[in-house]
Amino acid sequence: MKAEAVKADRQAGISRRGFLGLCAAMGTGAALQLRSFKAIGKNNDKPGSWSRGEVIPSTCNMCVNRCGIQCHVVNGVLEKIDGDYHNPKTLGGTCAKGQAGIMTLYDPDRIKYPLIRAGARGEGKWRRASWEEAYEYVADNLDKIMDKYGPEGLLWSSSTDLTEIFFLKLGVFLGTPNFARHATLCLASRNVGYFGTMGGVPDSDLANAKYIIMFGANRLESFELPYNRDLISGIENGAKLVVVDPRMTVTAAKGTWVPIKPRTDMALTLALMHVLIKEDLYDKDFVDKLTVGFDALKEHVAQYSPEWAEKETDIPARTIVEMAREMAVAAPAVVVFPGRRSSWYTNDTQFRRTLPMLMALLGAFDVRGGNFVNAGKVKLGEFDWEMAPFDVAPCVDGFDEGPFPLAAHDDGGYVMRRDAIIDETGKYPVRGWMIYKQNPLAAVVDGNRTLKMMEKMDFICSIDVQPSQTAWMADIILPETTYLERLDPIWTTGGKVKFISIRQPVVKPQGEARTILDIIKGIAAAMDKRRTFDPPMSKVFDFTMEDYVDKQLAPLPIDRKTLARQGIWMPGQQKWKLGAYRRGEKDFRTPSGKIEFVSERFRRNGYDPMPVYEPPAEEAGRQRLVTGRYAWFTHSANQNNRWLNAIHPENDIWINPDVAREKGIKDGGYVMVRSRVGKVKIKAYVTPRIRPDTVFICHGFGTNSAGQTTLYGKGGADQVLMESKADVITNNQALHETWVDITKV
Amino acid sequence: MDSKRLLSGLILVAFLLGNAGISFAGDIKPNKKRGQVYFRMVCTVCHMQQAEKTIPPSSRTMKQWRAYFKADKHDVSGTTRSAVSYYMSRDYRVAIKDSNKAAKKFLKLSDEQINADVREFVIKGAKDSDTPASCN
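^ Those are the sequences you sent over. The predicted structure of the assembly is below.
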């Protein structure tokens, strides 16, 4: 395997050591120093930084942010990935993950052929199959389950990406109502909290802000390039960055770290509003014109004084008052950052409501340096899909019928759905699981419970590029092409600038990997042999990706070939405009048309219309577990990428020195971490960068897949420890609601 | 006498028809998903072709959509048929069935059913509705 790895390195045209050196030089792999961000841009401001080979523009897929890339291909081998300097999002920069896409492409662990399980699930015994056999195998199993349980006996899991539509459509046309998308693993509570308050989630003008407050958001390690650039520009322009987090992240290190007691963020936001109102520091004009319910808010937050909040949050009352006053001085050029992953606590949706409320008191919306609604997107042509069946069964768990009236019902609720399937408390049995671009065994709280759900399944199919933890437990793995080997649907995006970009093949597929559209076509044709569909499944998917893209581009003055040369296209006339809401030209998508301090949507659905704080439970002598990421990893997707793994081969648990001393734990030594649902052995990182009542584990390690040879046997899995809890309004999983015991090994 | 009988008969017929109508309308169960497909594949497609502008459900409040359907006026410019209900009628579906899959698929459904489906979809997705924003 080692020889194969070296060969892959050579094939990729750059050594691991060279890559690390490059990362260090560019500042992406090391400590993310402020100046290094500027260096990224400068190094790539001009073309030709890598002079060899053909340069093909495309769109990255190493995380969800879709930065523009330029791929340098020499004799059919991808040698180097740079940021695309034409792309307004990327401006020539790319992160460590973006550059290491080469090693995702040439990873010796990649699945290159269809594999059918030849031993027990998880045993790691596979036999290579032809694609024809694989399609028949999948269709046979789907057909059996549909015969016995109906199409509702199938669960369809996937995560958002450009190609997800084809996978979803197969499920829709087969007739299953049971989808489990990624929203309730990630951002559902943020979306609903903002929706209930102001009708949507606003963007943030970080570059022009004078004061930026982030609650737990770790932008500099989540690596969305425009945000990172703008955040660094904002800091350089004199903005004060305040990061409220029990852990001092890289982002917190670039500003003022406010080490809040976990699960008390709402106490802080309520107290900040208390000070703004009590000291008459809020924006009266904005509040009068663009909000409703101020009097009720004033009355509500009167009880939440800074002195009260100090006892809840461990943040001194004096600091809270200073924060409120500083924000008021900087207003309206204040960004109250909405964050993205909001799967923290069971009260997350109500906490998220308080962020736009704070923003509104500061008048920090629809203004330079504040939050804003982005410029919209380029409208693409619609694909002319066949008609899907309508008479489908209700969801297995009744998620679409009432328990979470404000949730996005089409996305499903992961924790609730899993419970219904395992405990058989649902409306019917679910016995087949199709999984695409998702690793639920790593992504969902209480991994052992996800294993139990797998035991309920008669059939599991994983479509993936690597033998992930979930794929390893499947009955069949279908190898998909990486983003560097395929054409995807066009991506359209907004922000301050709207444009479209293309993701296109830069090299030929490795082995026999196929695109998701081809895989879906194969399964569809095999299903047609077994059942009668109206229309036939083959007809539904009777088109090429080129056809699909051409349809998308039809209304625009650019064709596919031109876009393939340019990488991006943006309309000539576009201006980032502010002030429409303030001038009364636009209103908010709320029942009142204004920002609602008292949420009518929440009220009419039986929830507290005003965020009510409830103190967190305490567990003496134990630590609260929180999770997150480092800049070079995305979820559990690339810890096995050998270049990225070399930066951080093994995860560790962050422990405060006082706690470590008390328990006799040494930095670098191993500890056993136990929760109510699991235990993991993991290396200790003793650091004052975390509160004594909190421990942190970087997500994505502790794989059960021996097929991930770089990662296997390294680190501990956070999700194994996490209890099965979820936000009460959205069913968004709550990743930070677990207490653990730590003992020296 | 005859005229009185005739009048009574007419009142009875009107009453029965009215009741039948109410009863018929009451039997209709709106299907939001079907309404969504019809709206997107018939209404939106045509709006894009004719005016290059979509009219998303979120462009109006629930109250405004209810009023819109009650008023039953599609267009004031005079370039299209004036009744909203016409664009959900069987006549319209027959007219476009060869070029529109949704119109063809729903050809046999009653005018009232399609009307109820579309109405359900746009009201559930209205600006002030409870339909939340999804990830996409």
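The CA atoms of residues 123 and 131 of chain B lie 10 Å apart. Chain B touches chain A through 22 residues (CB under 8 Å).

Shout if you want it in another format.
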